[in-house]
């Protein structure tokens, strides 16, 4: 009897100690209130807490900044499903977004990070925004179109659920540690700033993926910190008659390590443009400053109804000569894609 009880206690202890360790690091400048398995934990700024969960635990984790007025709004979630053979996890925006979160598996060499690091709040469509009483957007309801672009590694809809739910079954990790350490980082949303300046004497309609902004003549807009974002920025005079013609593209891909950017004329030219790294002394600007419209071969010209050339289709010979730092064909893609690893942002100028 006694022995059986002892054995039972012993095996219970083993079961408990072989649970899975989840460390939660708060990289923000303010504290967060974390909800995990129905329990709330306070995680101070720049600190770490550690929770051991059962080997077969299934559930989710979410957080709100301490003192947040909106506590029942949409929240970024981390979903876990642990088992003896395989763990699944994902950063999910199915129920919306409030904080950037990253899940990093440790003690393993074949498991992949799951993350949504972009500041979705800045790009949230108007009808999906959840604001506090002073009008700050503090959460964003599920908006797959925007979210899939800004957080390509998160679960935002059915398709990305299959694609972006990570499975981890590192044999060594299970054999040796019988536990998987998952570090969940609730990140501060510090990323790169993108400034867009309209140097023309006419108002421009700037399009960035699905979003459009009107930027008045000689003024500037600032897009707040972007992390792990890639996209294409184009512009068109607000009064333009031809809206579907060729356009100069400013391409940027921002990652946590190296950024890549270029001025591309592969889809043609309409406005002179420049992209300049901010805060870095050794990275190179990319530019096409020439008036390609005046030199555009007749067969590539796009004209409006008063017969003024307003766009020029891709013409590598002319474009490569006048804008030697822009991408005009396959060769110049390699030559003229700039990389930069220590800028704090980018200034884009249509001029
Ligand atoms: C990740 O694993 C290594 C090796 O086991 C360990 O030294 C390190 O502290 C772990 N990191 C975290 C955040 O647990
Ligand atoms: C054609 O383009 C020129 C140059 O942008 C502009 O001045 C003119 O008003 C345009 N014509 C029409 C009909 O929009
Ligand atoms: C970027 O790197 C260059 C070259 O090492 C250095 O001079 C510059 O200070 C760095 N800038 C930043 C913002 O770290
Ligand atoms: C600029 O300097 C940083 C830091 O020294 C370096 O990592 C990066 O490769 C440099 N970039 C270029 C384009 O030389």
TrEMBL record:
- The highest taxon in the source lineage is Eukaryota
User: Would the keyword Signal turn up in this protein's UniProt record?
Assistant: yes
Check the record and name the PROSITE patterns matching this protein: THAUMATIN_2
Signal peptide coordinates: 1-19
Instruction: Cite a single Pfam family from the UniProt record.
Output: Thaumatin
Keywords for the protein's UniProt record, in alphabetical order: Signal
SMART domains annotated for this entry?
Answer: THN (SM00205)
Matching entries from SUPFAM superfamilies are given as:
Osmotin, thaumatin-like protein
Q: Which InterPro entries match?
A: Osmotin/thaumatin-like_sf, Thaumatin
Q: Is Protein biosynthesis tagged as a keyword?
A: no
Gene3D superfamilies named among the record's database cross-references: Thaumatin
From the Swiss-Prot or TrEMBL record, give the protein name: Thaumatin-like protein
Source organism of this protein record = Rhynchophorus ferrugineus (Red palm weevil)
């Amino acid at each position: 009897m006694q022995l059986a009880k002892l054995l039972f206690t012993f095996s219970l202890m083993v079961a408990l100690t072989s649970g899975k360790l989840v460390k939660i690091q708060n990289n923000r400048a303010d504290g967060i209130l974390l909800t995990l398995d129905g329990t709330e934990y306070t995680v101070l700024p720049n600190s770490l807490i550690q929770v051991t969960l059962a080997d077969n635990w299934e559930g989710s984790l979410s957080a709100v900044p301490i003192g947040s007025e909106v506590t029942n709004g949409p929240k970024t979630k981390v979903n876990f499903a642990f088992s003896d053979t395989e763990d699944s996890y994902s950063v999910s925006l199915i129920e919306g977004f409030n904080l950037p979160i990253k899940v990093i598996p440790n003690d393993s060499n074949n498991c992949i990070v799951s993350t949504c690091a972009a500041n979705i709040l800045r790009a949230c469509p108007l009808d999906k925004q959840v604001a506090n009483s002073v009008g700050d957007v503090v959460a964003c309801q599920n908006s797959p179109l925007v979210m899939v672009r800004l957080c390509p590694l998160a679960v935002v809809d059915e398709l990305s659920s299959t694609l972006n739910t990570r499975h981890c079954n590192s044999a060594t990790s299970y054999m040796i540690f019988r536990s998987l350490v998952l570090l969940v980082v609730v990140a501060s949303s510090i990323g790169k700033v993108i400034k867009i300046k309209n140097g023309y004497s006419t108002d421009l309609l700037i399009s960035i993926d699905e979003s459009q902004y009107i930027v008045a003549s000689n003024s500037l807009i600032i897009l707040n910190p972007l992390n792990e974002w890639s996209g294409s920025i184009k512009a068109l005079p607000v009064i333009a008659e031809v809206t579907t013609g060729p356009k100069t593209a400013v391409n940027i891909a921002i990652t946590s390590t190296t950024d890549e950017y270029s001025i591309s004329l592969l889809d043609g030219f309409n406005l002179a443009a420049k992209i300049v790294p901010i805060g870095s002394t050794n990275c190179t600007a990319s530019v096409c400053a020439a008036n390609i419209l005046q030199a555009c071969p007749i067969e590539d010209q796009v004209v409006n109804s008063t017969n003024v050339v307003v766009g020029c289709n891709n013409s590598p010979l002319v474009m490569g000569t006048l804008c030697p730092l822009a991408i005009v064909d396959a060769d110049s893609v390699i030559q003229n894609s700039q990389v930069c690893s220590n800028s704090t942002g980018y200034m884009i100028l249509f001029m």
